[in-house]
Fold this sequence. Notes:
The complex is a heterodimer.
Chain A: E1 2-10, E2 16-23, H1 36-43, E3 48-52, E4 58-59, E5 73-77, E6 81-90, E7 103-110, E8 116-121, E9 132-137, E10 149-153
Antiparallel strand pairs in A: 1-2, 3-4, 3-5, 6-7, 6-9, 7-8, 9-10
Chain B: E1 9-16, H1 28-43, E2 53-57, H2 61-64, H3 69-76, E3 84-87, H4 93-106, E4 112-120, H5 127-135, H6 151-165, H7 169-183, H8 197-201, E5 205-207, E6 210-211, E7 220-229, H9 230-236, E8 246-255, H10 272-285, H11 290-293, E9 296-298, H12 304-313, H13 322-328, E10 338-339, H14 344-347, H15 352-368, E11 382-389, E12 394-402
Parallel strand pairs in B: 2-3, 2-4, 9-10, 9-11
Antiparallel strand pairs in B: 1-7, 1-8, 4-7, 5-6, 8-12, 11-12
Helix pairs in contact in B: 4-15, 7-12, 7-13, 12-13
Amino acid sequence: MRVTGTEWVVGPDGRAVYLLGVEMAQRYRHAVGSSSPFYEGLERGVLRSTRCRECGASWFPPRRFCEAHLTETDWYDLPGTGTVTAATRVHSPPPFGGIDPPYILASIRLDGVTGGITHRVMGAETPEHGAAVVVKFIDEAPAHPLLAFAFTVEGVTP
Amino acid sequence: MTPSADNAVLVAGVGMTPFVGFRNDASVRDMVAEATRAAFIDAGLGSSSTIDMGVAAYESDHFNRQMSLGQVLSDTVGLTGKPVIRVEGGGATGALAIRTALMAIRSGEARSVLVFGGETNGRSVDRSTAIELLSMSADFEWETPVFGTFAAPYALMITEHMRRYGTTAEQFAEIAVKNRRMALDNPLAHRGMSITVEDVRSSAPLSDPYRLFDASLLSDGAAAVLLATGDWAERHSPTSSDRPPVAILGSGSATDRPRLSDRPEQMFPHFAAKREASTRAYREAGIDDPPGQIDLAEVYDSFSGAELQAYEDLGLCPVGDGGQAAAEGRFDQGGQVVVNPSGGLMGRGSAVGATGIAQAVEVVSQLRGEVTAARQVPGARIGITDTHAGVGSLSVVNVFGMVG
Ligand SMILES: [Zn+2]
């Protein structure tokens, strides 16, 4: 932490009030923990998730334990295809950077699993509800590992 | 069903600061002290000695630059020695704090509880820092890296609502116009404005279809309410006998999956937790015809379309009819239920930890007939507050009404 400066300014009632400029920079080593195999999948170009060893239920995002039984789960590869529920054109960059606005963000139901992901769709056109999309690995040195991939609308070359 | 004052949890006092863009003359503890002092005066209390406990409401250590803020605020308002609980529930923080105090009184643990909340969401935090901190309201591992703005998940929800029900951008722009106009009559509001649907639609794009004027404000502010048993109020709050008592008639809360894209597709454009929370709150309050029985509602208009969706999920209109209701002004001043007479988050503003409490301050003041004439809902007897965290991951609905 550091004090970047101090100043006297005029308050709403005309009296002088004092301000401290403060700067803090936080740094973390963020453990993704039980999601680590997902990132291993990204390194070989597949999306992965987890399935309950007892009841067979699966989810995206992956879970450490089955949500119904808190029992062990196993990792498996997803086909990487899905269907758009809704999409929007976003006009500001994400907090880690890595995408120049405007860009297309969509809620995607993933095939082979219950649930889905909100993620980027390549290209300038906003896809319609029901559009079929497929994952595409696009960046070997992304601003955030999750931006190593995006989706493309099937049959459309971005 | 109206509870008698004997077993009801009463609102003995309310107070709030103005909500503003930047209080350069006040820290968050100053603002909480101001709001609490206003609530004390309202309740006619001479000191805090008879209050059993405190509930501190604030969302973010990052925005307020203070960990363990609950004890700091508790100390500031003269409750040192008494127990205090810090409550956090995202955008629903203030309402959840009131609900926590209600549970404490119902359990018999306390007879009087001071609920105080504040946040410095305004310009003490520079814009890029605010954007960075707010981005952490999404799922940090799965959503934050791709969300350029918190407008994005709201935009996805309303896009699907538009497809299913024919809702239009002009319909939810009407809400952005209404709430800013309502705020012109609220002297404590952050920024009332007289604008048109065209102004909303031509403001800067955030995440299609949402534009700048579809979004709400980030404010500095604080609010406080004092809840008590009828017996305590009779003994310690001299002003309570001067006016018709207002009680909490019901309270409900529920959660939903925090991430939008792993919710059941059927519910994608809806706030499932809001439906459940309001159903529970109405059951407690004996409300079986929400639009017929509720006179006013302070609704969580983080985005204009979120208010439209809330009309439906709070049972104020049929599902799919929210757009038509907005276009007709069904929830404007003079309408069936007056929604956001304070100006809502778009006009009164939002200081997160204080927001749900400020909604309660508005509802209680309306029921007592104490607000400015222009925004007074005539003859109001029942009012609700509605807030949620994230895009509806946690929802709290509190119902207030006259007793006796
Ligand atoms: Zn299982």
